Amino acid sequence: MAEPQWDIVIVGGGPAGLTAGLYASRDAMRTLLLEKGISGGQVATTEWVENYPGFPEGISGFDLSQRMEEQARKFGLQITQAEVEEIKIMEGEPRWFQVRASGETYSCWALILAMGADWNKLGVPGEDEFRGRGVSYCATCDGPFFRDQEVVVVGGGDTAVEEGTYLTKMASKVTLVHRRDRLRASPIIQKRALSNPKMEFVWNSVVEAIEGGPKGVERVRIRELTSGKVWEKPCSGIFIFVGMVPNTGFLGDLVEKDSRGYILTDDEMRTSQPGIFACGDARKKFLRQVITACGDGATAGKAAAKYVEELMGKAYE
Ligand code: NAP
What we know:
Elements lengths: L5 E6 L3 H12 L4 E5 L25 H14 L3 E4 L2 E7 L5 E6 L2 E10 L3 E3 L15 E2 L2 H4 L7 E5 L3 H10 L5 E5 L9 H8 L4 E4 L2 E9 L2 E9 L5 E5 L2 E4 L3 E3 L29 E3 L11 H22 L6
Parallel strand pairs: 1-2, 1-6, 2-3, 6-17, 8-15, 9-10, 9-15, 10-11
Antiparallel strand pairs: 4-5, 5-6, 7-16, 12-13, 13-14
Helix pairs in contact: 1-2, 1-6, 4-5
């Protein structure tokens, strides 16, 4: 067989994939990163990041991801926009991988999976119908459409509370609906939201339907879980932040996953399949943050480079 085109192919261009690309390229690996959308993944649409070390004033998620891409490219990382559809193990001496993405095929000695996770949906009537007409999963993208209007936010985690607080800069009022009687979000994020006069909290409640007309969302139906009472809340928009689902469905049983679909790895980011590594939010792990995605990416980039060097008999023992 002819030599694979690439030493390492990375799937996904968020902080994990870009950092893996930086490390693998600096280790002189011919490295290609395939990303279906824009570089940066979820952080690219995050308004403000204030817990990434080195930026005491904080930095916009978009700027941070642009800088990560620029740094990785500087060391030779190639980036192509393509959506990966299939990965095949090609038996040979040594084995290699074939990746099909947006109609092209790419071959490599090692793979790094860094597809991250996508937003969960609520799964209620009106959610699909009004998507883009009042239903949103991105405050940075859609917040400005709701200047001086009332919006509802669903969820009690870091994302819902942080993005809800951000929305108060534009909306006249933000009503956060959470299914419990307290927030899951970390204390500093909670404190800011709870003391924000433009935020209102509806506890022990769920949104059970999103309703509107030809112009978009007009109200949501809220059910109080304790009493069962249902009431209507007029609003122009609803932002849904109810957690994430890993983008690992297309892998089938190529690598071992947990019951929720997160990829299992060891501490060198090795999956159950030799030559395939995983990093970032798609991996089963304790903490999903930009900094931990970057940490995973560094390890995966380095470990994949070592794997390729060993295949080539060039590893420094
Ligand atoms: P998350 O922590 O999983 O929180 C999801 C929230 O949605 C929970 O409050 C959950 O309720 C609620 N929920 C889930 N399904 C629901 C449903 N069907 N109906 C109503 N509510 C539902 O997700 P996340 O907030 O997106 O955060 C994901 C990860 O990113 C976390 O590890 C988080 O720490 C991290 N993150 C960090 C920052 C930061 O540090 N600045 C910012 C954003 C995200 P329960 O509480 O009842 O489960």
